[in-house]
Each structure stands twice: as structure tokens, then as C-alpha cells.
Amino acid sequence: MKVAFIGATRGMGRALARRMAERGDALFLLGRSPDELATSARDLEARGAPRPVETAPLDLSRSESFAPGLEAAARALGGWDTLVVTAGEFGPQAELASDPGRLERLLHVNVTGTVVLCQMAAERLAARGGGTICAFGSVAGDRPRRSNYLYGASKAGLSAFLEGLGYAYGERGVHVVCVRPGFVKTGMTAGLPVPPFAGEPDAVARTVLRALDAGRPVVYAPPVWRAIMLVIRALPRAVMRRLQF
Amino acid sequence: MARLSALDEAPVGAGLQPVAGWGRHPVRPARVIRPERLVLPPGAPGIVPRGLGRAYGDAAVPSSPRDLVLETVRADRVLAFDPASGLLSCEAGLPLAEILRVLVPKGWFPPVSPGTKFVTVGGCVACDVHGKNHHRDGSFGQFVERIKLVVADGREVECGPSTERELFLATVGGMGLTGLIAEVTLRLRPVESPWMVLETEDVRGLEEMMEGLRRAAPDWPYTVGWIDCLARGKSLGRGILMRGCHATRAETGARRPGPRRGWRMPVDAPEWLLSPWLMRLFNAGYYLGQKRRAGRRLVPYESFFYPLDAVEDWNRMYGRRGFLQYQCIVPRAAGVRPLLRLLERLADSGAASFLAVIKDCGPEFPAYLSFPLEGTTLALDLAYRGARTEALVHELNALVVTAGGRVYLAKDAVTRAEDFARMVPRLERWRAVRDHWDAGHRFRSAQSARLLGDRP
């Protein structure tokens, strides 16, 4: 694969990019901090990614950075066939609820920015005959809960978009993969109480890579969350209203 | 028992979680953070740097619930690797397991490896770990070219064998007390295959074991002995001597070891499982089993270096109260007497379980708190049974002090400050360097409070 990757410097993105590097996938890293990108690029080279792993700036909150970023990736990789977006905003519910600026930024990055970027990417991939788009939703987007419906709403919006994108571009050879992680122990979730079935980034990365290769449209990671969310989605509102989590 | 119950009394909650070493004693509550970038968190009073938590005792355990445990495991990137020279720069949280997984297929191996691969490079520096090749290659610090340290005032300082040498000598083996180790540059060792040539031989007593280690030293890069320390009388010190070297490509061809079968210890073992007669039976069985297999064979590097890593959570074998690992070293000049007395005392107490590890070490590294010195080291597990186990450790320490030896801080949980001061003649020089960089002792641990008098 030739992968344009947004979010490879941290958390699940770091783990997934490493798995890709180890099997020799060509990588191009996009993100906000040039230093962090360069550091991760060296790490991925040491792990087997074809050298050099190049980087370019891209900020999910600034859509004007998307086209130059994707074009830089195309130049460096000689055309890319896969876009992976693991980057996104997160905030504890209480902070998002009381800070409208923070909430707006989260919605802007997780929905507006990611949707616009993936839509642009789908057009480019369709024009060159197909490819794969993989973006990260969340189990929080499957069913809103009182304790994280703001973050959940952003991921629900993204998930809806990705499902439609898959339908719209499938015939033109573009596979769309929506990853829905449950609780994963990363820097993003640091400090939160760790619930049962919490996953590790590396295990998630392996699950995601298998799904990418198989072209599965929705992947839960760790996989047990598929069953959990099946139950939670089926709960009546009266029950959800009483749940305290 | 008194210390263990501290957890019940402490205000766990408000983000506090129980923190313990690999021996699961003592357990103390604290806040734990795992940042991806190794910078000092603003406002934290005391900081306890911690890697993968494989130090057995209280080296990476907080002394106060107000202190912050800073785990480095998410700062785990390779910063540069030169496939021609084997020079590796990495963030301090990179585990040896990752170096092995990624670089053994490319022909590179850690220069020194402790008994588990689940340790971070930063932890290897902080403990100046040693391995089965100490008699030939020395400790981990010998292979370190550069350390980037975040010191108490938040500045980043580079040190190495020829830059800020004093800080380097205080940081290697310094148990993370001179600053937060953020990056390390070290030299790896070239290997031709993932296999080891292993020769084993049964030996019938301690003197024969020490003689066997001495004889093997010039020809074998890796040597170690396993001792049945429950055997008494004439059999005292009987065990298995192991000699190893990296196999060449000519010896192994291109074949690779299959995936390793893993086990997991799902629960804390009940304490009757550790009763002396069962332990004696186990040790005798192990000894006889190994004796039958004595000879020369090829084994994967994992079973040679990391036999216990095959059992996840093996520390639960010692039950809910945990265990102490006791490791001391006695100078060669003191002869075999002190070790015989140690083994006799252990056999009498019936406290030791499973097997003890014995290893001859080469010259000591100039780092001030580095553990190994020219002599023989012995390591064994003691199920923690409260005051009587601690009393036994103090007794063993008295023997070690008299012999001019010392204990290993990466294992220790109960040694007294006055005994430690007698074991480490270079302690005052180390203190001077530490005080220069961290006068307020911002970097501290339950161990530094116990052995060095750090105040929370």
C-alpha cells in the first residue's frame, strides 16, 4: 500500500503506522507539528518503511491545507492508494459542555475537517481508479450517552458520512473503512477511569489492518465492542435515560 | 503485612491508583501519568520515573500519594538507527522487546540483556542492568554513548562518557533520581541468527559451580548457573551450569524459531503451593530434568535469555502478599565462604523458593551506584511473609556487608539505610552530583526515601 496518513505520531495512529511500516507499506505523514512528524518518520523507517518517509503539514481545522498536503503525498509516493485519518479532537464532556469554543473546535475538526478531507480524497482515488479511505469513528457515535454525547455526536456525524461515502464511491473502486474503537488506552484517554474491555493500541492496530486488507466497511476494535454496542443500541430510551454512565 | 495494608488506609480515589514493583510489595497509592512527550509536568511536587515496572522492589514506587508516577512507556520511538554501525537512538520508553522484535531479523541484539525483555531502555540505564555476559562485556552503561535528561528545573541536558561525565556517572545506575531519562543512544551488538548455542552441565556443589563459571568465562560470552537453594548438606549449591553464545548462520541456516507458546498466571497462587516440601520437590524435579537434558543444543534466544517471559504475570505465583527478590554480589577476594554461609542460612530458613541464579561478574563500571563488581552474584525469590522475611534479608545483608559486597537496587525493597551506606563506598560522590542537579530531590521514590532519607 501507499498510504497518506494523518495522525501517525500518536496513539492508535502510531501503532497502526508501525504495523504498516513493518510489512513494508510506503508511508507519507501529514500533521500539524513538523518536529513530531519527523521523529515518527525516523521511527517508521527504522521499523521497515521504505526510506525516506516524508512529511508535510496538514491541519484538520484548516481545509486550505488539505490539497497541498495530499499533493505533496502524491508527489513523494508516486500517487497514494490509501488515506488513513486517525487524528481527531477529544475532550472530557464537562469541559466541552462549559467551553463553547472548545466544543466548536472539536466539531469542526472531527466532522467538518475530516469529512471535507475524506470527500476530496474519494474524488482523487476514484479518478485514479480506486483505493481505500480509513477514518476513525468511535463506539461513542453508535449510541449517545449522557456522559459523552458531545464527542459522540461528532463521531456519529463522521460515521454517517463514511457509510454514505462507501455507498457512493464503491462502484468506482473506493473502499471506505470506518473504525469504531471502544475504550483504548492511549494519551487521548489518559486520566479517564479505565472501563472493562479496554484495548491496547497495538492490538487495535492489528485488528484495523486486517479489516483494511479485507475491505470491511465497519470494524470494531477491540472486536468485543461489536457485541456490546449491539446490546447498547437496542436499549430503549427509558433505560438510557436512567443510565448514569 | 503492615505495609501492605497501607493501601487500604490510603485515600485511593481522586485519580489515585495502587503502584507496586514486580514483586508486588510494597504497594502505594499515587497518580500515574503516561505522556507521549517526556517533559516535566508543571506543578507536580515529587516525580517518580517508571518504565515497565519490572524493578521488583520499591525503586519505581511513590513514597507519598502526593507524588506523581511518570511512566515513560508511551515515549517509545526509535529516533535514529544506523544499520551499518548498530548505533541506536531512541526515546527512553522503548522496550527491549521491541528492539528485539524489530532488529533481531536485521541482525542486531541488545548489548546487555537482563532476565526479562519487558524493560525499557531508560530503565536499563537507570538500573545499569547486567546480564549473562557481564564477565566479558560489563553492564548496560558501558554501551551508552549519550543520555538526554530532563533535570529538576525542566531543562534538557545531554550527558555521556565524555560530556557532563559526572552527571552521566550519577545517572547510569542512578535509579532515575538525577532526572527524567528522555533519550538514550547506545551501541547494539551484531548477531547472525536468532538462535543460541546452549551447553548445560550439572554440578554437584557451590565450589564446583563457581569453578565451572570461571572455566567457561574465557570461551563463552554468556554464562549463568541455576542453584537448587533448598538442597542441603553435601548437595548444597547443586545446580545447572549454562554456557551460551549467539549461533552463526552456518550453524542454523535461515530457519527461524516458531512462535513462542505463552502462558498466563490467571490468579494469585494460594500460599500452600509455596510450602517448603513442595518447593523442594519442584527444585529437585527441575534439577533432575535439566540434568537429563545436559549437553549441547540450539535454542531460540527468547528461551535462553527470557525463560520467565513465557508466563505472563508470573509474579502472581507468590500469592497475594507478593515476594522479595534478593540479589547480592560478593567480591571474588572474599572467596566462597560468604556465599556458602548465605546458602546455608537460606536453606535453614526454608524461605527460599524455586531456583536461585548465580553469575560471576567482571570489573565494575565507574558509575557511582552501579551494582556489579568483580565477584559472584546470587539472586533468589523470597515469598513475602512480613517481619520474618524482612529480618532474614537484614541477616543476609549483614553477611554481605562483612564480605564487602552490596545489594541490587532494582530488586531491593527492605534494605536499611545504614546497611546500604556501608555497601556503597561511592554513595557520597553520587549524592554530591545529585544535589547539584536536584537540590530539592524532586525525583524520588519509596526506595530513595528509605535508603537516602528523601523527605516527601
Report what the structure shows.
- The complex is a heterodimer of chains A (245) and B (456).
- By secondary structure, chain A is α/β, with parallel strands linked by helices.
- Helices cover 50% and strands 15% of the residues of chain A.
- Chain A has helices at 11-22, 34-46, 66-77, 93-98, 100-127, 149-169, 201-214, 224-234, 237-242; strands at 2-6, 26-31, 54-57, 82-85, 131-136, 174-181, 218-221.
- In chain A, strands 3-2-1-4-5-6-7 form a seven-stranded parallel sheet, sandwiched between helices.
- Chain A is globular and about 55 Å long.
- The mean pLDDT of chain A is 95.
- With 456 residues, chain B is an alpha+beta fold.
- Chain B has a domain at 195-414: FAD-linked oxidases, C-terminal domain (Vanillyl-alcohol Oxidase, Chain A, domain 3), CATH 3.40.462.
- In chain B, helix 5 packs across helix 13 (427-437) and helix 10 (337-349) packs antiparallel against helix 11 (387-402).
- Chain B starts with 5 loop residues before the first helix and ends with a helix.
- The interface between A and B is medium-sized, with 16 and 12 residues.
List the helices and strands and how they pair.
The complex is a heterodimer of chains A (245) and B (456).
Chain A: E1 2-6, H1 11-22, E2 26-31, H2 34-46, E3 54-57, H3 66-77, E4 82-85, H4 93-98, H5 100-127, E5 131-136, H6 149-169, E6 174-181, H7 201-214, E7 218-221, H8 224-234, H9 237-242
Parallel strand pairs in A: 1-2, 1-4, 2-3, 4-5, 5-6, 6-7
Chain B: H1 6-9, E1 17-20, E2 27-33, E3 47-50, E4 68-71, E5 78-82, E6 87-91, H2 96-103, E7 108-109, H3 121-126, H4 134-137, E8 144-150, E9 156-159, H5 165-171, E10 180-187, E11 189-190, E12 195-203, H6 206-216, E13 222-227, E14 239-246, H7 249-252, E15 263-264, H8 276-292, E16 295-300, H9 301-305, E17 311-312, E18 323-331, H10 337-349, E19 352-361, E20 375-383, H11 387-402, E21 406-407, H12 417-423, H13 427-437, H14 446-452
Parallel strand pairs in B: 2-4, 3-4, 15-17
Antiparallel strand pairs in B: 1-2, 5-6, 6-10, 7-11, 8-9, 8-10, 12-14, 12-16, 13-14, 13-19, 18-20, 18-21, 19-20
